[in-house]
Amino acid sequence: MHITRFAPSPTWRLHIGSVRTALFCYLMSKQSGGKYILRIEDTDQARSTKLNEESLLEWLQWTDLHWDAGPGKDGGEWPYYQMERLELYNKYVQILLESWKAYYARETSEELDEMREAMNKQKKPFHYRQKEYTPEQLEWYKQEWRIPVIRFKIPVDQTVTFNDWVKWETSFDMKQFGDLVIVKGDWIPTYHFAVVVDDIEMWITDVIRGEDHLTNTAKHIVLFEAIWADLPRFWHLPLLLNNTGKKMSKRDDPADVWLVLVDQFRDEWFLPEAIINFIALMWWNPWDEREFFSLEELVKAFDINRVQKSNAVYDYKRALRFNGEYIKRLSDQEFVQRVKDYLYLYGDEQWKEICETIDNDYWLTFAPYIKVRMQTFKQFEQYCQYFFLRPSTIDRDMVNKEKMKITEDIVQSFLPDCIEVLEHLSVQQWTEETIKEELISFIQAKELKNWQVLWPLRAILTWVEASPGAFEMLFVLGKEESLVRLKEYHNQ
Ligand code: GLU
Fold first, then answer.
1. Structural Rg of the chain based on CA atoms
2. What pLDDT, on the 0 to 100 scale, is given for residue 242?
């Protein structure tokens, strides 16, 4: 049974790399009937914000990765915010102090800077080690009201070797690390200490996190050992690179990076299930060629041993393709509902009015034609007004295409007869097949090429470059509306 945890710090908005970690924790625990815990690591008080914390929870819920235990859901490990667990850390600090594995260090940050600089001048790295203070120094510090920190004594003679389960065995010579601050002057523990205590206290069996934590793991292991606790398994997931090969991270400025935050994906009207599928496949290779997995299917198919060892490359086009596929798979009713949800959320007043006033049956009529053509719902807002509105101005350049031998003269030469042919069809005859049959014979009779008629018809009805075809549009818009649009073009 695997007990995993996703432990975000509320210092950033939810990034797709973090969702990847949460997803793999979720999948591993679900597969084994274990537990997936959400823990909020908010000890970095200077950078943690309530706003980020709320947004983390909101967006995790949006992705459907519901935690078994965590904020709002006690699974026996309560509390789940590190700032509410301070007493617990204190208990462990006492153990380390009493066993001489941790000590009070009293330098000010200015003094530490000087020490660092002195070493730099000698071209040596600076590693803080325990100092013996004279009684006079201690007295002076006391009078100065200096507040000490607590440091953990790094076992410098040790080489820590551990098996990273994603990659390979890794070794760290501990001499390269200075003694670790585990509790700051304000009695708040640092990340390194709190994470170890919580992983012990929450019985975590598998620590899954980004590769950027690999060096931290060496420090954590010596802390685990100092507390005489069993080690969890460590899985370090490769990084995410953008298509120029540069590392993408939660520290990237969102303005510089195209769609890496989960909320940006929603703002672009993506479906969460598509994002989850896209993220899973960026880091994990299924056994076969299959690409599309629902969350339930991922639980069955996912194999953490097949997580890629090399860095993942972000491919926005693939995200779009995945989203398009998920839109296509929606039932017509669900498609309509979700488009409307988005229009209510992001659309302008006109769209909201359309959602409220246009009969649902009409939405269901065009749904099958349009859902196969879209990659995000935003495209619906951008390009699909033609289902509801007539063009405000007639764009003849859209209709006439020199290269396709479609000129205004040709269009005007067949349009009146074409309107007449369509006018002869009764409302009952107004089906896609009949329209098609009639128009094809009309085109043949006129000795024109199909596209010379169908492109202009489609363009006149929709006034956009891409839409369902002419037969489909005529059928969806219905006889009356189609003829109004065609006549308007002809008469203007
Ligand atoms: N709080 C850490 C972070 O947001 C996660 C640490 C971990 O998973 O161990 O990077």
1. 32
2. 73
